[in-house]
Amino acid sequence: MYLRYFGLTEKPFSIAPNPEFLFLSDRHKEALAHLTYGLGDAGGFVLLTGEVGTGKTTVTRSMLAQLPESTQVAFVLNPALSEMELLASICDELNIEYDAKEATLKSLTDVIKARLLANHEQGGHTMLIIDEAQHLAAEVLEQLRLLTNLETDHKKLLQIVLVGQPELQQLLQRNELRQLAQRITARYHLLPLTESQVFSYVKHRLNKAGCNTNLFSDQSIQYIHQVTAGIPRLINLLADRCLLGAYSAQQQEVSKQIAQEAAKEALPLNLIPEHQKRALNMPALVSGWVAAMFACGFGLSFLF
Which residues cross the membrane (predicted)? Predict the structure, then answer.
């Protein structure tokens, strides 16, 4: 709707992942460096955590782009699985044939280990990436640890990347998972963008969409950082609505006022400072109103 008005070739703030719009902040680059180092070591487990929308998928995609072509990667995107279901999913991802009706934990483990060894003998690598890993059951994590027992004199034959929300760190602190925790060769917790990084992020995405002018005032960017806490996914939601608001008002620049109105439409109310102030003042307002009612001679029967 607003593309032609602002001279854009496509939506700059779509929440759908698009490699063309890849933006790596200093924090994303640091996370990528930690993961790459961990994977280049002896193998085992690598851990990436962060709040929802902070860019864990962005870092993971960047990591994948740097892997050798000889690396076979298995993805598990729904980790709420039993041990059997997880091993079956790994087999499916690695194109390993197995008899689903006769499958057991041992038989699935055996065929997976056979594939790991075959990949290694052919000069290849095998990697397992598990998203939303905070939902993994302790016994499933232990099963993953057992898979990493297969190794040569120099490295593990399976590298596992666990990606999840901060709860994953708490999960791995459990006593029964201490052996797995000791095998984590690199870990990184991804923080949201700083205010200066939000400026760079917005400019980067506008440029990628064909705009070489700044469509957002400094005050609007500062407000966007404030209400989104620097979380890229929320920034995209709000910035997109800001451009729509500026178009509707026939303005060439997103002002702070436009950003404030857009936030009410695009974000949960509890994130908006103006609403937070009203919510905090509400008990006092209600108490004052009730006191005034009593002062005027009205009793509780009026209220109920």
Answer: 284-303
